[in-house]
Automatic annotation (TrEMBL):
The lineage of its organism: Bacteria, Bacillati, Actinomycetota, Actinomycetes, Kitasatosporales. InterPro entries: FPG_cat (IPR012319), FPG_N (IPR035937), H2TH_FPG (IPR015886), Ribosomal_uS13-like_H2TH (IPR010979), Znf_DNA_glyclase/AP_lyase (IPR000214), Znf_FPG/IleRS (IPR010663). It comes from Streptomyces synnematoformans. PANTHER family: FORMAMIDOPYRIMIDINE-DNA GLYCOSYLASE. Keywords: DNA damage, DNA repair, DNA-binding, Glycosidase, Hydrolase, Lyase, Metal-binding, Multifunctional enzyme, Zinc, Zinc-finger. Residues 2-94 form the Formamidopyrimidine-DNA glycosylase catalytic domain. Belongs to the FPG family. This is Fpg/Nei family DNA glycosylase. Residues 240-274 form the FPG-type domain. CDD domains: BaFpgNei_N_1.
Length: 289
């Protein structure tokens, strides 16, 4: 799933390739992709792209300074830039193509939105205000914003009785962090993903705050200038524990472990994060009862 660093990089990439250019056609292909109908997608056609930005994990393409094409890539969605799109109009079918945006200039250039798998969650909205998108309206503070201070972060955690892994992934609490970077952040902070957020000491809170900033900014810097098609590989190459169960921890050499968490799985290092104790896989334990 693209998270804040990848969406930030995509935003920068699209700003370079779209800003100042005009949209020729916006063609939805998958029935499920378009979540709004007023204004219609045709309102974007012939208009100039004036800016590209990000809200958490949402891309925001501003057109004519008054309309917004907001994109959420979800778990299996991706954006594929093409200097030359196929001349024939896309046909609805069982393939991964969900939506195509064709530019007026340079002629034939544009991008496709694709989504792998059978669960179709990729979402596109055409709105007058990004806050008209429910997911954007619910977003918590951006962890790279100037207002996200140590004091603001400590206040967010003060009454949180949830495990810190879940808090970091909750978009209404902090925008942009998903499963992968929450694993990376907790590994850097040397914290158990199961620890209750409200039970963190002042020192642990400060260390976690620094880990959030360092991890996300480092990932953004690695992704800066990388072409859209290579961002997935760049993300994977920079991860130290996420997706690396069974490999050696790059810090201590212990074996990275995996347990189920919510609707996915998390990876962690027992030596670095849990005092050498493997975490119980609670979902599996319930299944075995």
């Amino acid at each position: 799933m693209p998270e804040l660093p990848e969406v930030e990089a995509l935003s920068g990439f699209l700003a370079e390739h779209l800003a100042g250019r005009h949209i020729a056609r916006v063609q939805p292909v998958a029935v499920s992709v378009l979540k709004t109908y007023d204004p219609p997608l045709t309102a974007l056609e012939g208009a100039e792209v004036t800016a590209v930005g990000r809200h958490g994990k949402f891309l925001d393409i501003t057109v004519a300074d008054e309309l917004h094409l907001v994109i959420h890539l979800a778990r299996a969605g991706w954006l594929q830039w093409k200097d030359t799109l196929p001349a024939a109009p896309p046909r609805p079918g069982k393939g991964p193509l969900a939506l195509r945006v064709r530019l007026a200039e340079p002629e034939g250039a544009g991008f496709d939105l694709t989504e792998a798998g059978t669960q179709k969650r990729l979402a596109v909205y055409c709105v007058r205000d990004p806050r008209d998108v429910p997911g954007v309206a619910r977003l918590g503070p951006d962890p790279l914003a100037a207002a996200f201070t140590p004091e603001a972060f400590a206040a967010l955690l003060a009454d949180e009785r949830r495990q810190i892994k879940g808090v970091l992934r909750d978009q209404s609490t902090i925008a942009g962090i998903g499963n992968a970077y929450s694993d990376e952040i907790l590994h850097v902070a040397k914290l158990s993903p199961y620890k209750l957020a409200a039970n963190l000491t002042d020192e642990e809170t400060a260390v976690l705050y620094a880990a959030i900033g360092d991890t996300l900014r480092g990932a953004v810097e690695r992704s800066r200038g990388v072409a859209a098609g290579r961002l997935k590989a760049e993300k994977k190459s920079g991860l130290r524990v996420h997706g690396r169960a069974g490999e050696k921890c790059p810090v201590c050499g212990d074996t990275i472990r995996e347990v189920s968490f919510s609707d996915s799985a998390l990876q962690y290092c027992p030596t670095c994060q849990t005092g050498g104790k493997p975490l119980a896989d609670r979902r599996m334990s319930r299944l075995l009862k």
